[in-house]
Design a protein that fits this description.
The structure is a homotrimer. Chain A is of the alpha/beta class. Chain A has helices at about 15-30, 55-70, 90-95, 115-120, 135-150, 170-175, 195-205, 215, 235-245, 250-255, 285-290, 290-305, and strands at about 45-50, 70-75, 105-110, 125-130, 155-160, 185, 210, 225, 260-265. Chains in contact: A-B, A-C, B-C. The interface between A and B is medium-sized, with 25 and 29 residues.
Chain lengths: ~300, ~300, ~300
């Protein structure tokens, strides 16, 4: 496959074979993710991280990945410090940063920003989240986590719990997983159900089950993917508390699951996973976060060196 | 000439020979500006970028130049994150950062800040814009762009259009160009004419023509240097719209110019150059922005290694 | 002693022998502090600087030290640009950055934050100031300055002047110095006296003298450690002015001191040391600030390479 100079805009741009190629390469990078690649394959390269909205985890994870490969990093972590106040368009900023760097990692509040940027840049653009749109490297590191921590993706039963209506992560990850041979479970309150058009699309390819009760399906799951329920989604704080309380993950619930169940979360978490869960063998969300580095090392190497 | 440890405070500090030496060196750097200098001549050096007001383009351009030469970069991109809130004077901050770095790139809202800083630092200070004062590396990259994109500076007819009253860029660039054998055209509304003292100074050395009508002179120009007209300069928004509308660069106007006319702009642009111009062969403003890297690579090498 | 992977949380965690080992190593680093260690011993390592409140001097000093040793740096310089707004706990952020870096430098407004962080990180945590708590590398560079600029610490008479009540620096430094064979002088207005429990603790080990009058003791001092008196501590601005005015360091006062007296200050200073003092041979506060680099180079090398 052609990787050199390729933009990473949407997880939907990748075939299953391409996803598996990234996973395979990321797996080779794991050994270098905490010590640095001994050959510094990206030495001399500059990665620009343009974060039009703050996201510490994603930004630092990309920067760590770039540095572990020997590249250097420049950019900004928030709008303060950028020229946007002077009224510059995104396309002009991209055209300029294009001449300062070898790859652009873009986080932007507007859906479609990364696609637009990729049209104005000669260097490859990586979408690090564009509003309600895509965050493909998050989906890739999530799939890598399933593969690494739970074994082959095919055959897995994967449940998403929490806010499935607004969660960008759930939408693109469940779409990507539906390209594999999996069963998907969507567990949420009525108010936060997965959008119908996404569910319909997924149902064409894999079995889907929707429920309000995590208890009803916990025994069937190989992977429990928990997401945060945001207060702001509820007009009434009492309503929020009631709903949020139901989806807090308790050890007693986990003990009813499969022996090899793993718990994932895109983080940051608030109350939906209490600290007592952290010590259970099922908890893999910090491991998951750590996989951001090898997955992004693999992606940077693929698009900057083509292999 | 002695370059080692030299401060870059004002374009007025340089002779024509020195400017040509920088241009010559920058030209050699162009080939390394997008891939990095293979010898990493500034390896082990630290460049501090102290930006007391944000300027993404200038900061990232300096950081890219430093990294392309093998140097490392530390600093801040805006006041948030600096000690200024604690009441520290600029001279104290400079004396301290002096011991953390090998060169200081300073952006500051107060005119004269860079000169002051250069008196308190042992390491060389580069002025990256000090309020209404100077921005010498911008002038140098502009002259480099003329030279590279249009040929020898001597003999050129160069027109400045837009806000010539408040534009720091126009003031120092036109002064610098007047050391060469050029003709200068100042095209602006009555309200935004170039200050008399600057015009008088320039007229001592080169022919100057002043006009309100770009149409009257477009056929004579080799270089059209466009600047932004800022809304804030006009008490009446209707007045602004009338003036700004006149100086929008249209393809029909450009088609009347010389075959080899080039269009420059220090960026960011707003409405004065519409996107339809971007695709014309005359448009060189993104090229101009990209030359910030090789010009700054040359300057950093000259002052940090002396050659 | 075991240094590899050790957390640097409180100056109280170190024995006199360990402090002397750091001083000895820092002294060897001085020659590399402005040019970079030729062997780049920390090449391939990543140092994370997480500054939950801005402190330009401390952050840039750590970053310079890391870079001079060949390491790379990522992080944030202020809360803007961090995930804290999304409600993430410090312990979760630490667990994640733990997988992005080889050492974490933490500045946090809450006392005890660094100790907490060290419990959640596998990589070593360096406390770069935690509210009213500790700032151990500041104390270490202060002791290094005494040793380097004034000779062996044992036998010295060291006076602290200014705000001794709220100054974190004075508290931890005076405690650390009391492990040596020194005499300590606390010179302050009634309102800003050193807290009784600290004084009592110190008096167990070394002679202490407390006074309001710097004139009374200036002739006895080898080291005069000046601190800033903050306006905010006084309900009445007139009261502040009266007090602050008394403790301004004048050349006439300094001339009455020992020939080898040195003047230190943690910086930033405001009015307590006027610029006319800067040129006296006694003024060592900029030298002191510069020693932040070799001391932090030594610490990073000890905890990242164990030697």
């Amino acid at each position: 496959m052609m990787w050199l100079n390729r933009d990473i805009v949407s997880i939907g741009d990748f075939s299953v074979d391409e996803i598996m190629e990234i996973i395979d390469k990321a797996n080779k990078m794991v050994q270098y993710a905490s010590s640095g690649h001994p050959e510094r394959p990206l030495s001399g390269k500059i990665v620009a991280t343009l974060f039009y909205e703050p996201s510490t985890r994603t930004r630092l994870s990309f920067e760590s990945a770039a540095m572990r490969m020997g590249a250097r990093v420049l950019g900004f972590g928030s709008l303060e410090g950028s020229s946007v106040a002077k009224g510059e368009t995104l396309s002009d900023t991209i055209r300029i940063v294009n001449s300062y760097s070898d790859a652009i990692v873009l986080r932007h509040p507007a859906e479609g920003a990364a696609r637009l940027a990729s049209e104005f840049a000669d260097v490859p653009v990586i979408n690090a989240g564009d509003g309600a749109g895509q965050h493909p490297t998050q989906a890739l590191l999530d799939i890598f986590t399933v593969w690494k921590e739970s074994g082959p993706v095919n055959g897995k039963s994967i449940g998403f719990v929490g806010d499935l209506k607004y969660g960008r992560t759930v939408h693109s990850l469940s779409k990507a997983l539906s390209m594999f041979d999996v069963s998907l479970y969507f567990i949420s309150p009525e108010e936060l159900k997965i959008p119908k058009h996404i569910k319909k699309d997924i149902e064409k390819r894999v079995p889907v089950r929707e429920t309000k009760n995590l208890e009803d399906v916990i025994e069937e799951l190989d992977v429990l993917y928990v997401t945060r329920i945001q207060k702001e989604r509820f007009p009434d704080i009492e309503e929020y508390k009631k709903v949020a309380g139901i989806y807090v993950i308790r050890p007693s619930l986990i003990s009813r699951g499969k022996k090899n169940l793993i718990i994932m979360h895109p983080l940051p978490r608030v109350d939906e996973i209490p600290p007592e869960i952290d010590h259970l063998p099922q908890a893999r969300y910090f491991k998951q976060a750590s996989y951001g580095v090898p997955v992004r090392m693999a992606i940077l190497d693929l698009i900057l060196r083509g292999e």
